[in-house]
Amino acid sequence: MKNLTALVVALVLPASAVAQSTSSPAPSDVTPAPGSVSTAPVIVAVPPPVNTFVLPTNSEVVLRLSDELTSKGKQNKVGQTFRLTVAYDVKVAGTTVIPSGTPAVGEITFKTGKGIFGKSGKLEVELRHVDLNGQRIPLTGKYRQEGEGNTTAAIGAVVLAAGLLFVTGKSAVIPRGKELSGYTAQSTTIQVKPLI
């Protein structure tokens, strides 16, 4: 009987030792070997979703002139472009698609200086486009500015000076800060990143 008990103990102890040596260690005891790949979860930054809006044709865009334009002298020339900024947010479905302060471009298309007989100077400009983060949005809009004429004074000069005319009209001036309304020339798709 003693021999049988000793035999059972001898068989059970090695099996118990093997079972303990093959059991998994507690998670806190796991240390990755140098150079091994970590199994920790990887967090990937996902860019925020982009909302797409369509700005219809003939949508109004109010622009503010950045510098004064004048028909006087050689300061401004036909073909010269000039800077403007969007004066007020342009919205589609309550969302701002073109924020105020966005740069825009116009062009001088016609110019005449003041002359004798009270002739006033004239200046015509056309709005060209808005530059929205590299996206060019074409605009339409044409404006004409004339200086105040001096016709009455010129007629008086003829009578008083017997034809010696020294009275001229005034130059056309569009002041800095003047607001001009432009309109989108075509339907334009604009992508807007939502505020986080």
Structural class: alpha+beta
SS elements, strand count? 13
Estimated share of beta-strand residues: 35-45%
- The main sheet orders its strands as 2-4-7-8-9-12
Number of helices in the DSSP assignment:
2
Largest sheet properties: 6 strands, antiparallel, barrel
For the CA atoms, what is the radius of gyration?
40 Å
One letter per element, helices H and strands E, the order comes to HEEEEEEEEEEHEEE
Envelope shape: elongated
Features of this protein?
196 residues, alpha+beta, single chain, six-stranded antiparallel barrel
Reconstruct the topology from this structure.
Elements: H1 2-22, E1 51-55, E2 60-65, E3 69-70, E4 81-86, E5 90-92, E6 95-98, E7 103-112, E8 122-132, E9 135-140, E10 142-146, H2 151-161, E11 173-174, E12 179-184, E13 188-192
Structural commentary:
With 196 residues, the protein is an alpha+beta fold. It has a domain at 59-86 and 103-183. The protein has two helices and 13 strands. The longest helix is centred in the N-terminal third of the chain and has 21 residues, at 2-22. It is elongated, with a radius of gyration of 40 Å. The relative contact order is 0.21.
